[in-house]
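Report of the visiting student (M.T.), summer placement. My assignment was to run the structure pipeline on a short list of targets and document each run. The first record concerns ABC transporter ATP-binding protein.
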Amino acid sequence: MSIEPGSLHLSNVSFAVGERLLVRDISLDVAPGEMIGLLGPNGAGKSSLLRTIYRTNRPSSGTVLVNGRNVWQQSASWAARHVGAVLQDMPADFPLTVRDVVAMGRSAHKKLLEGDSAHDRALIEAALELLQLVPLHGRLFRTLSGGERQRVLVARALVQQPAVLVLDEPTNHLDIHHQLQLLRFVQSLGITVIAALHDLNLAAMFCDRLCLLHHGEMEALGTPEEVLTTDNLARVFRVEATLTRNPRTNSVWVMPA
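After the run finished, the structure tokens were exported:
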């Protein structure tokens, strides 16, 4: 499966609910093929910012560009073809099989009631193979474990062939084996990714750059070494930490006191 990575540009993006400003003046450029990690404590604005990219939260101000085009000035189907999203939770109380859910990723590329083409079927089968879902293809989605469901949702996003992949806490509810497996796989694709992550060490291992949010504002942006500093961790997460290196990956390793 081949996906052409796209560019993502956020310019002074803000989002408010009533009088409450959840995201304030965020500007960020994500290069094609780059993986950016969004970090911050609960309520920092990570999910609210991501929703402005996949057209759930219309920005109160600012612009979101994918491949140079404003996603909020395009059709919903255009956005679905160019931005894929894997969210923390998805309703599972529907009688769809694994293959059905993966195939949903092709809907933005087709007309209403149009059946799967040979190209669609090839992409679906490739995604099932990549995510090791072939043995599960006939299982009902609601019968799967949390880790299996996340793999299905990643496969669905991949068959969209998006320019940008948005991951909102993709490792939530996963054990460490499946956390590593999922992030290694996403990293290996070479596509453009912006991901909200809670685990600082996983973010340091897999992301090219990190964006640290606090109270809806950007506190720091840069490499893991530049962002995961003792001062930033104390100010934003209110923890004292010792920083060292992962002996296997040489990435920054955060050890809270």
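The chain is about 30% helix and 25% strand. The domain at 8-256 is CATH 3.40.50.300 (Rossmann fold). I thank the supervising group for their guidance throughout the placement.
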